[in-house]
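I can't quite decide. Please look over this sequence plus structure tokens:

:::
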Amino acid sequence: MLEAKTEIIAVGSELLLGQIVNSNAQFLSKQLAEIGINVYYHTVVGDNAERLKQAIKTAQERANIIIFTGGLGPTKDDLTKETIADVLGKKLVTNEEALANIQDFFDKTKRVMSENNKKQAIVLEDAEVLRNETGMAPGMGVEVDGRFYMLLPGPPSEMKPMFTNYGQQFLINKLGIQDKIISRVLRYFGIGESKLETDIEDIIDAQTNPTIAPLASNDEVTLRLTAKHKDEAAAIKLLDEMEEKINARVGEYCYGYEQTTIMGELKKLLHEKNLTIAAAESLTGGLFSEQLTAIEGASQIFKGSIVCYTNEVKEQLLKVSSETLENEGAVSAACATEMADNIRKITGSDIGISFTGVAGPDSLERHPVGTVFIGISMADRETEVHEINWAGSRNAVRTRTVKFGCHYVMQMLK
């Protein structure tokens, strides 16, 4: 297999102006890594032919795979393929299949196709055309002087399926990739990135196949394991063995795989155990309930909630005792206990969860910003209350608290 050195060039002045985020480069880098192709450079260039030419020439000096996103549309500032054709000395030709697809799109929407839309059907001579099944402009891949060039549309809704369905296979064929490359993402919560890496440092240092790529984001840690083997079953076995080795040390913090969320896993666990939950939310203001009910099928396990942002609502609707509020305060373990117990009883749920605390920007009841109490009530055991002290913004405190609420319930049910 040819050693792959890839550069991704995103074309579009809107990227430089900060009007949109270059999510295409992130997506492509992840997809390429999964088939063993290294990305060395990300470049962003505006809708300017001369600057794009310079970017192409720079890429040619340091990469043998150059992937472009954007600039394939019908307007005058869509100049990617024209500029690339100029640099490569390639003619531009009309692809009749692409032209027919564009015409069909306009026919179905009962609109008249303007002349400039025919520009989208123009491709580089000798290029392999990549079908656009969610838009109009086709992509293309071509080899010139030992380098591979791929042109993809800018809109992610068009680019992602095009690369997944056609672009990726183009590169696999051209590079002679024979190994099956399979990745698995392990998701961890309740352990910091540095602690997790320290606990498995020797495993990371000794990695060969599978490889291990740690990543921290949004209070979680993920490990991407990637295995290569000519036989798919053998690659999966390598992943299984590595996962078992890692989780022998940190498995208590592993809650799921791939693109799942901790809220999604909580919903799944409650469904498997045939349990229901209800929430009493002060600090979080309904955030727990909103995130849970955003998941399909949540009605099977979620009874309801009370957003009790004031002491009056805590006392009148949630039946928190006035003595507790006067003597202990709303920000207290005692209040969190009564909130969790009472929401469970009021709704007839198996589990009651409560959130109370100080999100900021000011302290409350002599408690500093970031003080949080999470209560979890079940009929057959003593109510648990977890006190946490966070640093960060108001929104960060609330978001983190919801995630830890999920984590504590899941730990209680294991």
Notes: The CA atoms of residues 77 and 172 lie 32 Å apart. The chain is about 40% helix and 25% strand.
